[in-house]
Design goal:
The complex is a heterodimer of chains A (148) and B (229). Chain A is of the alpha+beta class and 148 residues long. Chain A has one helix and eight strands. In chain A, strand 7 and strand 8 form a beta hairpin. The N and C termini of chain A lie far apart (96 Å). Classes of the chains: A alpha+beta (148), B alpha+beta (229).
Chain lengths: 148, 229
């Protein structure tokens, strides 16, 4: 009888342990589901904002050539991105030592070497569309052979 | 000996309780996954920025502008993007152009043109290493560009229509004419063509073309039969 009693107590305790473990797991699972849904809604909100803020046809100009740079070479590559070539009339690059007019590629990338004068060079880049819409950017480059 | 099973059961119970608590706690903590992710992002961003800033500060920069003020050992200059503090120390070389003669900070004057080369950031200050000042500002030659339609040709001049106004665009032997395929001849241009040009502007405001890009050809009109035919 004494053994039976101990077995019964052990079974009850075992059941309690099982219930506690299952309860914990279920609580963890429901908490994770809540997080997942909140993350999803947040991400959806962000992408919606991004969509509303970006107009794929509005003219832009991003220069990849660093501003305020010093170079020991008498040439520099002006590179950047804008709309694809079928949406742009041309890109005017005004340097101190000459000008260039180029067109971007199908993806809107462009690159052009221009020569520099010794000292300060102000390089002005303007992108034009057929209707005269334009966007521009200016960078400064100093060409010097002196060590800094 | 009889107590051992009881103790084992008790320990198991405690262990299970602890495990479930930890599980629940983990879930609650992971309830802040968004916050943690955000914190991680911010830390990564701060690390990247600090590394980038450190790298950027190791690269000498050039600022071209005009001297606006001189305060103790700092020259305040203004360039195309705003004001910058250039700190002068014993290692700084200050030169006056033309001639590049070495001068002292006291000889730098307000409204001098200035090229400041040094290390640092615009936001804080730049540790000036080589400073070149000039009584005349370092201004680039005045240039312009526009997209317009050719109205007619005159001797060495193209008359353009830009809205309601006309532009006289002088061309020289150095003027480059091109279209999207490459270099063309001036004779390839026609009245009604749309061009994008870049030009030098002289003191009188006259334009001399440096590059002309034919962006659109004039729409060819179908020849109408002559009344005499």
């Amino acid at each position: 009888m004494k053994i039976k009693k101990e077995v019964t107590v052990a079974v009850i305790i075992g059941l309690l342990i099982g219930a506690v473990v299952v309860g914990g797991v279920l609580r963890a699972k429901s908490a994770l589901q809540k997080i997942e849904s909140s993350l999803n809604s947040t991400l959806k909100g962000e992408s919606f904002k991004a969509d509303t803020n970006s107009d794929p046809t509005s003219l832009f100009l991003t220069l990849e050539t660093a501003d305020n740079q010093i170079t020991a070479s008498n040439k520099i590559t002006i590179a950047g991105r804008t709309l694809p070539k079928d949406m742009v009339a041309g890109i005017v690059i005004n340097g101190e030592n000459g000008d260039s007019i180029i067109v971007p590629d199908e993806l809107g990338s462009f690159s052009q070497d221009i020569s520099l004068v010794k000292g300060a060079n102000t390089i002005h880049v303007t992108v034009y569309q057929d209707d005269g819409t334009k966007v521009d950017s200016t960078i400064t480059v100093v060409y010097t052979t002196s060590e800094i | 000996m009889k107590k051992i099973p009881k103790i084992l059961i008790f320990v198991s119970f405690i262990a299970s309780f602890a495990t479930s608590s930890v599980l629940a706690e983990t879930a609650t903590t992971s309830g802040d996954v968004g916050e943690i992710t955000e914190n991680l992002k911010n830390r990564l961003k701060a690390t990247v920025e600090s590394v980038t800033e450190t790298d950027q500060n190791d690269i000498p920069k050039a600022y071209v502008g005009v001297v606006k003020d001189i305060v103790k050992d700092t020259i305040v200059i203004e360039d195309k993007d705003g004001k910058i503090n250039i700190k002068i120390n014993d290692d700084s070389d200050i030169l006056r152009s033309p001639g590049n003669t070495a001068i002292k900070l006291e000889s730098v004057r307000i409204d001098d043109g200035i090229i400041a080369l040094g290390y640092g950031s615009r936001e804080e200050s730049v540790d000036g290493k080589r400073i070149i000042v000039s009584a005349d500002p370092f201004t680039p030659p005045e240039k312009t560009s526009a997209i317009s339609v050719i109205k007619e040709f005159a001797k060495n001049t193209i008359i353009l229509v830009d809205g309601e106004k006309e532009i006289e665009l002088a061309t020289t032997l150095k003027t480059v004419f091109k279209n999207s395929d490459g270099v063309i001849d001036k004779a390839d241009l026609n009245e009604g063509d749309t061009i994008l040009f870049s030009a030098l502007v002289d003191e009188d405001g006259d334009y001399t073309a440096t590059v002309v890009l034919q962006t659109k050809k004039a729409e060819t009109q179908s020849p109408s039969p002559s009344p005499l035919e």
